[in-house]
Amino acid sequence: MIMTIYDHIKVGEDVCQINGEDINDEQVELIYDWVDDHFAIIKNCPFCSTPLRSASYEKEKYGSESERLIYLIDSTLWSCDYCAYWQWYWHEATDLVLTNVYSEAFISKLRDFNEKLPEGFDSELSMIIRRNYRNWHIIDPTRLEKLIVSVLKANYGRCEVFHVGKPFDGGVDVIFIDSNNQQWLVQVKRREDPNIAEGVKTIRNLLGAMILEGSLNGVVISTADHFTYRAYEAVGRAREVGMTVKLIDRGKLNRMLDPILPDRPWRPVIKEISPNLHNYFSRRIPKAPQKIIST
């Protein structure tokens, strides 16, 4: 299910609407200017500043006798590969003197929920995080653990992943079984401070859980900015006795969201309005290559 929705602005000779509601005050002129002049000059995503991919379509028709322009369609689509933001501009004129002209702007946004994000909306959650990395640090810890399950499944084709986190879980939140049938115990840490480093204590806790569970493989996934030197030192000492611990910080975790982002969420919107333009823009802006991150 595509959960991205959009704002729809329509302006013309006798219409000015936002999401179907008429605008009849001093804002009308500002909206006209913004749609026709400023909307089309955006180059970077307004949320994450990533350069946008774009494609344009233009169709002109001239009168057979007068050779004057009698019909024009001008349309441009912008799409962000990093956070799945998109916007689409449509301009139509049906005569030379511009007495029958209108423009439309479609701007993606994230769906509003009354309380917290429901279960199962991992694509939506990945977009929320990509648009503001600080959301890593305010997400409910249990919800984070369940998101990690989806992230691991998406980044590893042949694997099994189970969420087991609960109070007094012994330091194990997720169990990951790789394609070689090896079991990895995963500990997930949600840190509220975006600048904090994950310390050695977390590594020691996981190593203790690994010993109790008879497992030689573990992973610490943390929203911390990085792991401390002593944390990496503990990983090295564990390796000397045959225990493997992988460390994933916020930067790497953020990159691992790529496979669960929705594929060009503008497609169903454009397809409903114009199947021909949907096909055109789908060819001009193909699916972005997925960057699978291996631990």
Q: Your description of this structure?
A:
- By secondary structure, this protein is of the alpha+beta class.
- The protein has two domains: 4-112 and 263-284, no CATH class; 122-255, Trna Endonuclease, Chain: A, domain 1.
- It is 29% helix and 28% strand.
- The protein has helices at residues 27-38, 122-131, 141-155, 200-213, 229-240, 250-255, 267-273, 275-284; strands spanning 4-12, 15-18, 21-22, 53-62, 69-79, 86-93, 101-110, 160-163, 174-177, 183-189, 197-198, 217-222, 226-227, 244-248.
- The chain has a seven-stranded antiparallel beta sheet, with helices on both faces. Strands 8-9-10-12-14 form a five-stranded mixed beta sheet, sandwiched between helices. A two-stranded parallel ribbon has the order 11-13.
- A hairpin with a 6-residue loop joins strand 5 (69-79) and strand 6 (86-93).
- Helix 4 (200-213) packs parallel to helix 5 and helix 7 (267-273) packs antiparallel against helix 8.
- The longest helix has 15 residues, at 141-155.
- It is elongated.
- The model has no long low-confidence stretch (mean pLDDT 87).
